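Budget justification note: compute hours in this period were largely spent on complex prediction jobs such as the one shown. Inputs:
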Amino acid sequence: MDFALNEEQQQAAEMVRRFAQTEIEPTIGEWDRRQEMSPDVLPRMGELGILGICLPVRYGGQGFDYVTLGLVCEELERVDTTLRVIMSVHMGLCSLTILQWGTEEQKKRFLIPQAQGKEYAGFGLTEPGHGSDAANIRATARREGDTYILNGEKMWISLATKAHNFLVVARTDPNAKPSAGLTAFMITSDMKGVTTGDIHGKLGVRAGSTGWIAMQDVEVPAAYRIGEEGEGFKVAMSALDNGRYTVGAGATGLIRACLEESVAYAKQRETFGVPIAQHQLIQQKLGYMSLWYDTARLLCLRAGWMKNQGLRNTRETSQAKWYATDHSVMAALEAVQIHGAYGFSDEYKVERYLRNSKGAVIYEGTSEIHQLMQAAYALGERTDGKLRCELPAYDTEAWQTE
Amino acid sequence: MRIVVCTKETPDTAAKVEVSADGSVSWGDAPLVINPWDEYAVEEALQLKDRGASGITVLAAGTEVTRDALRHALAMGCDDAVLVDDPTLEQADTLLVSKALAAAVRKVDDVGIVLCGRTTTDGGSGLTPVQIGRWLGWSTLTYVSRVLAVDFAAGKITVERLLEEGRQVVESPLPVVISVVKEINEPRYPSFMGIRKAGKAEIPVWSAADLGLEGVAQVQWGAVSAPVTRDVQCEMITAVSVEEAADRLAEKLIADKVV
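Corresponding output:
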């Protein structure tokens, strides 16, 4: 068994680390305090190719594999969760879904500009009254000739006011069982009847855009339907297999951030005449954080490896996301505790880490949903059938051919 | 005209370098990276290519581990790379390294400019660029902070040097050896495409024999020791304004007879 990352994966991660450290880290605390997203972040991530990291070159991407996507997410969230959130919605939930389910025309229309960073993408499944209960969403789509008319509201949408394109799910058949009556569509923010807004006063991810999309009689060309009518739930759940992977990998970076900041502080801060790193109860916290980091990383790497191989990974991705996000909250709590009163103020970064960590145990499947999923697998009550369109396995030649 | 960038691998700047009693130098598990100063040289080479240079070759004298530094330069956008690797060069000092690099430069066609970082973060002598220039018999312009004008067709370059005394503008015929300071530019990150291309690039190895350097004497290091560490106390001077902080700092420096 080979646990080594190849040179390209390591260099890509290093490049993103440098970008985040050099260009984001110095000012992220200020943007967080202002509850605004820096206007430079998205254009810069697009310019550097981060927004197309694991998409084939022929679709405007950079041709790297799914493991690299995870490493990039880890490096981004090492600096701030909002950076990784961009990858979760733009790449994990939207672009990879188009790669998996989209027609060639849809890939040309949406995937290429998204991979090139010329257009940003979001994902609209959650509604004001439906999160975990995704099969019962209320948004509707009514077919009229070559057009669908969409109505409804989507809530807690990352990049709501920044994205050009959204993958949304709406009910096309009110008479079918809830999960069978849904259909997925690409809509654009400039379509008549689409309005968006940001939500302020969030606990965390304050330097990012989180908001809502309202759709009022939005005319969507039938050519923008992703998958078949009635396949929307499957499309959405497969999107989550990729979104959750980026969330887990990012949370791994957040654990690392907590560990690194805590180690540095513990070596420098003295109590009772010695650095607090010499106190065993501090060491215990560092020891656990180190274990959580390695475990989360290994779970995410396994999920990434399975994606590369073209193996179904719903169970493994759910496990990685559940473990990494739960433990990023625990790591952030311990990091604040190690920092003592200073950790309680925004003078130190761990305060932001703790606030940022909480969202990820709620979105893309609450920790409770993941526990139920894992129990269902363990009890033999859940198996994953073959999808009509699977996420394509990573193929170096196919990905890197221009 | 072509540009050659000379580089090497150095321990990461965050590494804790230690010298043991037997004189061996170690830096723990810290990774080796491209010498940070050389990234400015690579960036300048890339900008000079935009100003008319025909291509960029990156050279390093080292061993297999040096390939990462070369690949980094390729990933930033250099066209090709050559590793100069020979047992003769093990433990080489700057005089021998510069001799090997100068010989390698001669093997590259139509070189107009050799670019180096001001110094390296390990040895830190800053001698190599000057010695390369001397071996080649070319003008050497050190501490360059700006390339004001370059005309490859006319074979002429005008640069600004950043010296302790101030800025100096000098003009030189090409070919020339240049060492750059970090004020010259802001190095770009390696691009993803560059990383992939660098990963696939063939990096040829030139031996001492390839460079006509057979029989050069190997360097023996008599003794290596760590510099004496000084116990430094750090005192933060705080004030409500920059001006007040500056005044307090000045008073402190005068009181302590530093100035």
